[in-house]
């Protein structure tokens, strides 16, 4: 057991409750902001996602390359951060294909400047956050509904998993990667995430179907996989949080890890099912 794990286990109930209070307070600020930008669509959505993707790449760089080698690689970090933001803006205004082209150009630039596989992977990771949400929201007919459903599934999965795990406990899901996560939390997150997604879809008048339910299951599982992936990366580089900019949550990477994987899956499925011009419809209408 690591020193950090020991401190986590030794935390008093009062300390855990205080941490939960900070976590809830941060969410009370961030969630309305995200929903407002999703509601307005267009550049508010694209801009918020671009900022988030830029921060994610910067945090990734700090996590995987936080040693002496980071300063000489500043041009690569700046390139990755700029192209991560541009990918989101372009994906919303010109389409997912254009956003992907920008992301690939950015990854190539980072690879050439840094010669680091980890930094190059980080540029693609940031792009996986940057591209899906603007591309989905750009659909005038189904964009808002599809984006809200995606966000609800990810947020509900995380929240239900957190509270189910704390309440029920039980066997650990993958203790070597994430010592606190349990099977009860994972199952609770899956059930809560899918149920919440179906409710959100029905509120927008989306016909409920087996295809939609199966996609929501996949999105919830992808969200949990994204959480575990980020935990594995941080553990690989002995980092607890990606940064400390969000009280109670750590960094931007810590807040959007599930959304990266779930958003990428929603983009992929929506693109295959509905085509590049109807990604949101491809997510919702089965």
Automatic annotation (TrEMBL):
Checking InterPro entries in the record gives:
PC_trans
Catalytic activity of the protein: a 1,2-diacyl-sn-glycero-3-phosphate + CTP + H(+) = a CDP-1,2-diacyl-sn-glycerol + diphosphate
| EC number of this enzyme | 2.7.7.41
GO MF, one example: phosphatidate cytidylyltransferase activity
Keyword tags:
Cell membrane, Lipid biosynthesis, Lipid metabolism, Membrane, Nucleotidyltransferase, Phospholipid biosynthesis, Phospholipid metabolism, Transferase, Transmembrane, Transmembrane helix
Protein family according to the UniProt entry? Belongs to the CDS family.
The protein in question is named: Phosphatidate cytidylyltransferase
């Amino acid at each position: 057991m690591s020193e950090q794990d020991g401190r986590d286990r030794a935390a008093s109930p009062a300390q855990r409750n205080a941490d939960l209070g900070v976590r809830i307070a941060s969410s009370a600020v961030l969630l309305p902001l995200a929903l407002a930008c999703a509601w307005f669509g267009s550049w508010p959505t694209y801009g918020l996602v671009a900022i988030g993707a830029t921060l994610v790449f910067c945090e990734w760089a700090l996590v995987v390359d936080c040693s002496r080698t980071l300063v000489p690689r500043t041009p690569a970090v700046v390139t990755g951060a700029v192209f991560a933001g541009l990918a989101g803006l372009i994906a919303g205004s010109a389409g997912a294909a254009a956003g992907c082209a920008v992301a690939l150009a950015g990854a190539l630039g980072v690879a050439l400047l840094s010669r680091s596989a980890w930094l190059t992977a980080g540029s693609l990771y940031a792009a996986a956050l940057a591209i899906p949400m603007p591309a989905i929201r750009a659909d005038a007919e189904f964009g808002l509904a599809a984006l809200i459903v995606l966000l609800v599934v990810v947020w509900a999965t995380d929240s239900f998993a957190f509270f189910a795990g704390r309440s029920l406990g039980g066997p650990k899901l993958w203790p070597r990667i994430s010592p606190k996560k349990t099977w009860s939390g994972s199952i609770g997150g899956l059930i809560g995430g899918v149920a919440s997604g179906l409710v959100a879809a029905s509120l927008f008048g989306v016909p409920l179907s087996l295809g939609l339910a199966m996609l929501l299951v996949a999105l919830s599982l992808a969200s949990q996989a994204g959480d575990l992936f980020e935990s594995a990366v941080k553990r690989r580089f002995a980092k607890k949080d990606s940064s400390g900019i969000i009280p109670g949550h750590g960094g931007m990477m810590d807040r959007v890890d599930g959304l990266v994987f779930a958003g990428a899956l929603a983009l992929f499925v929506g693109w295959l099912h509905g085509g590049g011009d109807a990604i949101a419809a491809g997510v919702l209408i089965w």
